[in-house]
């Protein structure tokens, strides 16, 4: 009889893991508190980059980009979920620019051949819409870009179903039945689901779920993050906008095209921990962040921070929408990918700290290796290298954190 895996949560993580384990022969049940895509996965900027500061994440994200390019052949559906417009990090301070160039060497050593450090002249030649007086240079990787997240979770869930998976929506996990510390079944209002393996894919909800599961409470802090849409006007053509990479300004403000008429913008801010946020809170927009609050709002500050280095953006017509969601932030901005120390048949794939959409294929790759082994493993093979998993282990020391966080 096939081994039974119960996956809790149907965002990008749970959907891709469900497909991957169903393909590997597991009898998969997905239980989702609301509906497929109800969490951060439908509220994300969905940027995908291989420009990270640690080798294991560079390797993991090279694997993710390659997977998303082959998504139709691997998973199915009609459309490719990745738009490879590239990622452009801009630098204005010498110290930051020196560190960025050093990182590019590390990334190239990890097989990311196409990433480049562009000195000012080359940067302006390549991207004439940047302000040459405000910058020293930039790093650009043309195979980075952004995702269409709804394609990822909807197609992955459809593919998992075709492989025999059961997907139960409006089914929050409210309890478990356990023997000797192992979970035998998870309990929901829609029924009891027996399990040989349980996988927590609830990200920002995970600390709360851990109490229900009798699991280790991991240091994951739910924090609000906002996005804004800005309407194109002025000298930047629709074609130029649509072809723009995801750009990160020296301030940390970032933007990418949503289409040829609108620009999606974001900028991290000091946000309080919200451990008990409700589903509805995902869409709650504080007045200080709402675009209709006027020019003092954080959305306008984001727009202006971008216009400082991308002058044509300053000519745009205005902000038309504010959306929001939660990051599940860990102390070192790396996720937890591993078995729970307190519950031997519980795998945790949580704490993505703003990277969960891009991590999805790598997370699912790791999940399959761990499920197969029945315990944590030291590394997984990805493309031409082995990605070490120590940086993602539960119980790790937090000395090896991700430095490029947006
Ligand atoms: C504004 C914003 C911008 C972002 N930008 C990026 C980006 O550029 N690139 C990137 O890679 N990532 C980005 N992220 C992060 C990314 O969106 C998340 O890391 C990712 O979507 C997490 O996916 P997930 O499937 O792990 O979790 P989620 O999509 O949050 O899914 C978790 C699911 O668990 C369900 N659930 C919760 N409790 C229970 C329960 N008790 N029982 C059953 N189900 C339960 C929820 O309903 C939810 O559907 C951004 C996030 C935000 C908010």
Verbal overview:
This protein has 406 residues and is of the alpha+beta class. It has 2 domains: 4-67 and 149-219 and 331-392, FAD/NAD(P)-binding domain, CATH 3.50.50; 83-145 and 221-329, D-Amino Acid Oxidase, subunit A, domain 2 (D-Amino Acid Oxidase, Chain A, domain 2, 2-Layer Sandwich). Helices cover 28% and strands 26% of the residues. The protein is built from 10 helices and 22 strands. The chain has helices spanning 12-23, 55-69, 71-74, 94-109, 120-126, 149-162, 206-213, 238-243, 298-309, 356-373; strands at 4-8, 27-31, 47-48, 82-83, 87-91, 116-119, 137-141, 145-147, 166-168, 175-179, 182-188, 191-194, 197-200, 221-231, 246-248, 254-257, 262-266, 318-329, 336-339, 346-350, 379-382, 385-388. Strands 6-7-5-15-16-17-14-18 form an 8-stranded mixed β-sheet. The protein has a 6-stranded mixed β-sheet with strand order 9-2-1-13-20-19, covered by helices on one side. Helix 1 packs parallel to helix 6, helix 1 runs parallel beside helix 10 and helix 2 packs across helix 10. The chain is globular and about 65 Å long. The mean pLDDT is 96. Flavin-adenine dinucleotide (FAD) binds next to helix 1, strand 14, strand 18 and helix 10.
